[in-house]
Amino acid sequence: MSKVYTLDKNNLSEEIFEKGSLKCFKCQSNEKLVKKTKMLSCPPVLVFQIQRIVETGKGFFKRTDPVEFSFDLKVVGREDEKRVEVDYKLYAAVYHSGDLEAGHYYSAVRRGSDWYICDNEHIWKCRDAKETSKSVGEIKTPIAALCGVPRHCVEIVDMEEGIIYDDCRDVTTLSRPLQVMVGTDERRVPFYLLTTDADMIDQDPDDEEPRLKMSCGHAITPYNLFGHMRNSLINKVKSSVTCLTSGCNQEWSMNEIIKKADMTTDESLFFEYKISLNAIFSHNNDTSECPHCGQFCQRQQNTQAVRCSICSPRKHEKQADFCWDCKAPWVPNHTCKNRDLEAIQKILNEAPLKTLDYSNIERVPSKRLCPNCRTLIEHERMCKQMKCPGCQTEFCFSCLTLCVGSRLQCSGYSKECSVAPVQNAFS
């Protein structure tokens, strides 16, 4: 879509009924009903809604093709029979990231020459347009062209974590090389699997979309099968994929799903690993992650104190023993702390390493806890001096030394210093 909108007679018209569904009262001929909108004056604030949800014969889906628009818009109107020209400046945009089933709303708001992105919890400054940083959505197009597939068949993933990255994610925050999962634009059904039974999701026996029978005997299209499998494993984080037919709930094997959804090798490898990962967290009470290195550990005989076999040989690790329940370092007469710290520790462990450009310091964890109030903070840009948004404490993001009178104590903001290791959320 090359332009967001043009105020001409075509775009300000909306077809209400298709031709043939309405008869003219005078001549009784079949006509279509069209609603036309006319601007009588130029309002102080102009709001456009871009229709991204469209309906096809297969149901509703969200368009994901990019929208390009100018920051300036000149509108010609009439007030008191006089021609009036009004120049509008783009002030804000509200957009949705995700699909019809899940996602998030964001707003971009301009303040002076700077843009800020807002969600439910955070506000952060948008990168300058001159910078080379791109989003996941932006790099999908050249990757798709290189792979010879449509853009919607390409996903940027993290195989080890079982993550499919959202289109708005900044590529510079991802580990390299990027992991790409290539799908298919056409999911075929072998003739011997075809059935005329209604799809368990659409419930339309007259639908011409090819359908196949699952092992439980209920029918589904390969596209709906893949979508149901993806939703179950990614959005709902389930450890199994089951039939949606009321009263059935039979579990399908991944081998069956891979074959009948006509999945590519990339898709098969990713989702087979993902369902295994989900099973580890949901079913196996004797397997969990080490809070220090992130590797999976197993415990024996339901003991609370666990020793990580990876961390133990490392001499610099002061404590490789941790509590199975709360993941805090194990000490005699240990009492469990807040379980939310486990999630915070996981974020700290998995935070990508970055270079603080202004200070020329490499391999710094991009997420830290404030040394004073323990607020979780992410470094986006500029130098190493950080001000906590919670308690207003200033500190060095690299070595974690506190500032005195807003002045760094380790070195100047543009000079190197030591890099403190990943913090322990439980200490």
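[next item in queue]
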Amino acid sequence: MFTIGYAMIGTPLLLVFLGRIGSGMSDSFRYIYSRCICRWCRTRRYQNEAGMGQRRKRLWEDDVGKEDYMPTDQVQVPIVITMIMIALCLILGAVIFSNWEDWSLSSAGYFSFVTLTTIGFGDMVPGNR
């Protein structure tokens, strides 16, 4: 009876928690991405618009406005970059677990994939040799 009550309360709380964590990570990544892209775009425009005899403006004297204003809510991160980040997480996890647990790289990659996709079969457990 306790297990049923625990599952009825715990599962929705877990879903809310995962949603908040995912939203926070998404907002953070979108902010970092927008700052990098906007900085890169400003630098490119700065290099293209500066003539040979003109006094070159500094980046913070730009006509666009203050650099503090970045419309991060409107920036969409391309799916290719998202897929690259996921692949890097899987590869990094595989390398770390293959070194720490003395697993083959393919076994560690399998464990990393199964763990990050929350499938978790339980056939491989770190610390059990």
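[queue empty]
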